[in-house]
Amino acid sequence: MSERGRPNKKTKHDDQKMKKIQNEEALYSDDDTGDHDGIYFEGEGGAVEETDFSKLELKADHANRPLWACGGGRIFLETFSPLYKQASDFLIAIAEPVCRPESMHEYNLTPHSLYAAVSVGLETEAIISVLNKLSKTKLPEDMISFIYASTANYGKVKLVLKKNRYFIESPFPEVLKKLLQDGVINGARFSSEPYCGADGFTVGKTSGELEAGHGELLNEAESAAAAEEKETHSFEIDPAQVENVKQRCLSKDLNYPMLEEYDFRNDNVNPDLDMELKPHAQPRPYQEKSLSKMFGNGRARSGIIVLPCGAGKSLVGVSAAARIKKSCLCLATNAVSVDQWAFQFKLWSTIRDDQICRFTSDSKEAFRGNAVVVVTTYNMIAFGGKRSEESEKIIEEIRNREWGLLLMDEVHVVPANMFRKVISITKSHCKLGLTATLVREDEKITDLNFLIGPKLYEANWLDLVRGGFIANVQCAEVWCPMTKEFFAKYLQKDNSKKKQALYVMNPNKFRACEFLIRFHEEQRGDKIIVFADNLFALTEYAMKLRKPMFYGATSHVERTKILEAFKTSKNLNTIFLSKVGDNSIDIPEANVIIQISSHAGSRRQEAQRLGRILRAKGKLEDRMAGGKEEYNAFFYSLVSTDTQEMYYSTKRQQFLIDQGYSFKVITSLPPPDAGSSLSYSTQQEQLSLLTKVLNAGDDLVGLEQLEEDTDGMALQNDRRSKRSMSAMSGADGNVYKEYNSGRHKSSAQQSKKPKHPIFKTRFVS
Amino acid sequence: MVNAIKGVFISCDIPMAQFIVNMNNGLAPSQRFIIHVLDTTHLFVQPQVEQMIRAAIAEFRDQNSYEKPT
């Protein structure tokens, strides 16, 4: 007996441990005991090496300084320091924000951020001395040399657009010569037609001359510099190669980052556009700041401005256009936002109706006058197929024009190849990209650095919340345990395709959702949007709760009707949306979001969805810190515990966490006493729901695919091509794709040989 | 006559119990380890499988938790 007793005790002890381990799933569980901490530190042992900053020398008066400048370009900023505001302004100019929670911000020095700094007019010495002044520690050697190396060559080479041709310009011919030694740049060069200076520049050294008179040219350059003459040397490059050339010039290769500035005030060639900002358009402080980054020295420079959704990106865009006062091409993602942009232009500026035209598949307004604002979509410009005669004319017009400003909305969504096409078609002096979420799952985001330009400004979300410019959102993750039956099915291997449907349709989740809707509708009178990516779940939830819904296939008319009713009617307070609602649907009334299913681990989707409720609500004084309502918007993400959803959910939150948001975990929804007031209270109901889920076809429980959703496709490693016939018919399996992409060498070779020219257009098109 | 069987008593939440049951069902009949499913949150299993169950649960949990790449 004694033998039985012992193991029993032991198991009980182990059992407690096991329970404890499960508790650890609560990311920050409070009941962590001493020995647990021990394990934690042991585990961290490896990482300590890289983050050991104990060697850094602390200055005597470090308490008064706000920064920690550490090795590897990392900088930490204490937000509670009295110098916080100045220091953060400075840091945002020279470094990229990595993570900005409440009391400690992390920044990273990158070559791109330093180019941006230099281009705004900061000098290398100034950067180092200010950084040194603000830092608690002595600046590490590697940081100083890094700053020198990154900024030394900036501005020596310029990319200019003249009469629809691109030139690389530099006062230092030896620099040009060095550039030309690079294969890519030399290849991009138009060697056939040496450009001869027309407007006062002494230019036009072909490569041959450069090669021949090396010493002579050097002397010439020196004397030119001494005489302060404006002597510039340049050569023309192929417009199609501009992007490659820019990329080559970056720090990784040649380290001569090209300056792109547009001196619009002295541009007499392009006609002026008569538009001013209306007096009531008063940019907020952060909008002003972002514009000052763009127009720092009286010239316009290309780049990206990052502002959270609802913070007034369009005013920034319109202001930029109004300042440049030249023809402006504004690109949006879809027809709805084209209308919104056209409206914004008319709202904020004095532009006349005949100076602005929309170009979409539905409305093709012809150009009038010399200087215009054209609002269109990326698709319209990049469209590769045959166009109607009418739109062909307009495209030709766009192609032939020199645009003062290329304004690009939601730059993060546009796939790189479409971007390249747009940029190769349109010739613009200055490009401004606007976005809220500069993240992509396919890591193409760095491409934007040479496609558009450096990030000029990124707003701090929490500062905007504190200033009352955007809503103060309470984010919560609601943990819904799986029911026994659903989890059993979830674990079975043969249900792998239905896993998503099973954890989304988890009855506990449904009940939590129902509870939240009821609570917010009845107790607070809120307007609620429920997001579900999974169409099966979307329909089931909406039908069961008797709420309207719409998704990709819903017609424009019906959408407008539902949205209109949602905005105006007192009886309709909840709508269900699929991921069509993620971007650019403007529903300022909504202030609660419940997310029941989401697209894998897309950080952007999470941030964009949050953006739907960020537009500031209520009275300003209530919203300010210490106002009546601490939170006036709510973002719930319902997650079934112990499933893949936990993984995705944490991943998705990373972007918002980096912006300083924190997610509260709620584990007790619905409250246990809710009982039969909510649906699926009996096991019988739950079981019939389970059968329904299991019987639904695989195609039904899958994800909705939208054409423009390339980011999501990157997550799934599955891309749809508009061109292939099989994709149109929906028969585009992975097998077909692999065959097409030539990943199987043998089959690819086979496929190449027997192809008859007649079929070429069909398959390759 | 009372028969005593040596084993490990497991108490856990509903999904984990299902996980262990599912693990058990995936094995060949001779290797199955559950002696008794007592109720939805309690199981009685053979003593030698304890470590295996722990390892399986740890792995399962790792799959479902995201760690930020550094």
From TrEMBL, chain A:
Its UniProt entry gives the catalysed reaction(s) as: ATP + H2O = ADP + phosphate + H(+); Couples ATP hydrolysis with the unwinding of duplex DNA by translocating in the 3'-5' direction
Report any Pfam family annotated for this entry.
Answer: Helicase_C_3
Tell me yes or no: is RNA-binding among this UniProt entry's keywords. Answer: no
User: Which class of enzymes does this protein belong to?
Assistant: isomerase
Residues of the signal sequence? none
Name where it mostly resides.
nucleus
Stretches assigned to the Helicase C-terminal domain: 511-677
| Localization, UniProt | Nucleus
- Extract the InterPro entries matched here: ATP-dep_DNA_Helicase, ERCC3_RAD25_C, Helicase/UvrB_N, Helicase_ATP-bd, Helicase_C-like, P-loop_NTPase, XPB/Ssl2, XPB/Ssl2_N
Give me any GO biological process, just one: transcription initiation at RNA polymerase II promoter
Q: Tell me which residues make up the Helicase ATP-binding domain.
A: 294-456
Q: Where is the composition biased (Basic and acidic residues)?
A: 1-23
**UniProt biased composition (Basic residues):** 742-759
The catalytic activity of this protein is classed by the Enzyme Commission as: 5.6.2.4
Which GO cellular component terms are attached? nucleotide-excision repair factor 3 complex; transcription factor TFIIH holo complex; transcription preinitiation complex
Extract the ranges annotated as region (Disordered).
Answer: 1-35, 717-765
Q: Which GO terms describe its molecular function?
A: 3'-5' DNA helicase activity; ATP binding; DNA binding; hydrolase activity
Subunit notes for this chain? Answer: Component of the 7-subunit TFIIH core complex composed of XPB, XPD, TFB1/GTF2H1, GTF2H2/P44, TFB4/GTF2H3, TFB2/GTF2H4 and TFB5/GTF2H5, which is active in NER. The core complex associates with the 3-subunit CDK-activating kinase (CAK) module composed of CYCH1/cyclin H1, CDKD and MAT1/At4g30820 to form the 10-subunit holoenzyme (holo-TFIIH) active in transcription.
- Entries under PANTHER family matching the protein: GENERAL TRANSCRIPTION AND DNA REPAIR FACTOR IIH HELICASE SUBUNIT XPB, RAD25/XP-B DNA REPAIR HELICASE
Q: Which family does it belong to?
A: Belongs to the helicase family. RAD25/XPB subfamily.
Protein name, per record: DNA 3'-5' helicase
TrEMBL record, chain B:
Q: Which GO terms describe its cellular component?
A: transcription factor TFIIH core complex; transcription factor TFIIH holo complex
Query: Per the database entry, which stretches of residues form a coiled coil?
Result: none
Q: Which UniProt keywords apply?
A: DNA damage, DNA repair, Nucleus, Transcription, Transcription regulation
Q: Name one GO biological process term.
A: transcription initiation at RNA polymerase II promoter
Where is this gene product found? Nucleus
Q: Which Gene3D superfamilies match?
A: TFB5-like
What this chain does, per the record? Answer: In NER, TFIIH acts by opening DNA around the lesion to allow the excision of the damaged oligonucleotide and its replacement by a new DNA fragment. In transcription, TFIIH has an essential role in transcription initiation. When the pre-initiation complex (PIC) has been established, TFIIH is required for promoter opening and promoter escape.
Q: How does it assemble?
A: Component of the 7-subunit TFIIH core complex.
Protein family membership: Belongs to the TFB5 family.
This protein's name: General transcription and DNA repair factor IIH subunit TFB5
Q: Which organism is this entry from? A: Microthlaspi erraticum
Q: Mind giving the lineage of the organism this protein is from? A: Eukaryota, Viridiplantae, Streptophyta, Embryophyta, Tracheophyta
